[in-house]
Amino acid sequence: MVMMKSFFIKVIFILLIAAGGYIFITSYRPVPEGMISVVYGNQDDAPVIVVSAGSRFVIQGVAPWLYHIETIALDKRDSFDVKMTIPSLVGLKDEYYGISIPVSVEYSIEWDKVSDYTLFRNNSLKISNIIFEDTVRFFSNQLQPYLLPFYRGPALEFRKEEIKAAVRNGLTDKLAGQGITLKRIDIYENWTYPDNERYREGLQYLAELRRIEIENAKSLSLLKNRLEGEKIQEEALYKKYREMSRIIKQNPDILKYIYIDKLTDDLKVIVSSDKSMVPLFLEEGKNKGSVSEKGEINNLR
Q1: Architecture, CATH, for domain 75-194
Q2: Which of 205, 253, 145, 208 is nearest to 216 (CA)?
């Protein structure tokens, strides 16, 4: 009895050690400085809790079938090109006739000021998209006076610094309200946009494309009308053949008449029954008068 009791105590002790080891291994997730860990529920992928830097344990790690954890860097850098289309050349998809501005942004996420933790999902991809969209929006607002009502590309060269400062200030204030600190924004000098000669070339190119489009539309319309006309003719021909088929089916001897009638112009043809050899008009007893002239037969009327 004493031996059984001692055995169970050893088993329980081993199980406790194993459980403690499992908890330690699965929940020990130290969060480095400049990073956070976000715990998401597996069922709805909704954020459950954010674990700040310096923490050593994330208790939800003991249940990987219920939660998953993402570790995210708070200091990030994104690089992209702001691309815009000149309104008067909007029909051209070639970037050669558009505007392109290379931009690099460094920022820091103040996670405790971010109300929507879903922004952290997929390594803060949504935050990167927000910064890109806001940057494009500020550039668009600043460039509009040079694009409408007509394009004034050369004037951009003299206003670059003013445009860059306006974008930098606007973007800084906008991101600060979303818990993002803009540390640095590099708007590089190698902007690409059409000069006057390229712009005129684009207008001519667009006019040619529109002319070709109009010609193609006309050709397509003519082809459509021709096909519809042919369809009507084919339907009429089909109805005609169908009617002929009905007449021949009701009067099978008419084929013999047509064949003999074609042999000579002086031959008079009377359609009669194969068995009786009696002309049809006598067999029916209804027709009066002489036999119809060549080419005229009552069955075809």
Answers
A1: 2-Layer Sandwich (3.30)
A2: 208
The Cα 164–Cα 166 span in angstroms is 6
* 59-81 as b/e: b if 16+ CB within 10 A: ebbbeeeebebeebebebebeee
**Domain assignments of the chain as residue spans, ordered by start:** 2-72, 75-194, 251-301
Q: Which is higher by pLDDT, 37 or 255?
A: 37
Three-state SS at 284: helix
Helix, strand, coil shares, percent, the chain, to 5? 55, 20, 30
Percent of residues, the chain, with pLDDT higher than 70:
82
The CA distance from 109 to 132, in Å, is 15
Tokens for 206, please give them: 């667009």
257-266: average pLDDT: 61
Give 38's contacts (C-beta < 8 A, 6+ positions apart). Answer: 47, 49, 50, 51, 69, 70, 71, 72, 117, 120, 121
How many angstroms separate the CA atoms of 239 and 184, rounded? 79
Cα torsion for 148, 154, 159, 165, to the nearest 10°? 80
Q: What is the pTM for the complete model shown?
A: 0.60
Which residues are paired to 51 by β-bridges? 37
How many Cα atoms are found within 13 Å in the side-chain-facing hemisphere of 126? 9
Q: What is the pLDDT of residue 84?
A: 86
